[in-house]
Inverse folding.
């Protein structure tokens, strides 16, 4: 009986961690949109967008970690792991096209990533 209670508490904790990771990722993507606007209007916008890209990528990696932790020890679904891995792949493409200065791909991909992140957050 104590094992079931502990397992349930651990599953709830990892599920909460997964929700926080998705929320952090969504927030960082939103802040990237704000810093992109600042990029066009201020001198410090480029620095903020560059730092924000690193934070957003780190948040995507945290999402993968949280999804794996929710799946493996808790015995949850593999679906969040696939979603998080796909999102990390999208973030990698986003960083690559951002460095290459291809706004025709970078901007729509950023909007898509924000939408998918909000959708993932709503599902949790």
């Amino acid at each position: 009986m104590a094992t079931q209670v502990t397992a349930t508490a651990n599953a709830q904790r990892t599920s909460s961690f997964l929700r926080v990771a998705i929320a952090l990722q969504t927030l960082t993507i939103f802040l990237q949109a704000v810093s992109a606007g600042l990029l066009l209007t201020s001198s410090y916008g480029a620095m903020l967008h560059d730092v924000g890209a690193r934070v957003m990528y780190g948040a995507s990696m945290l999402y993968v970690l949280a999804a794996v932790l929710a799946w493996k020890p808790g015995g949850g679904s593999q679906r969040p792991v696939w979603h998080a891995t796909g999102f990390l792949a999208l973030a990698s493409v986003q960083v690559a096209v951002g460095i290459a200065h291809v706004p025709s791909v970078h901007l729509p991909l950023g909007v898509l990533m924000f939408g998918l992140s909000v959708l993932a957050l709503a599902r949790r």
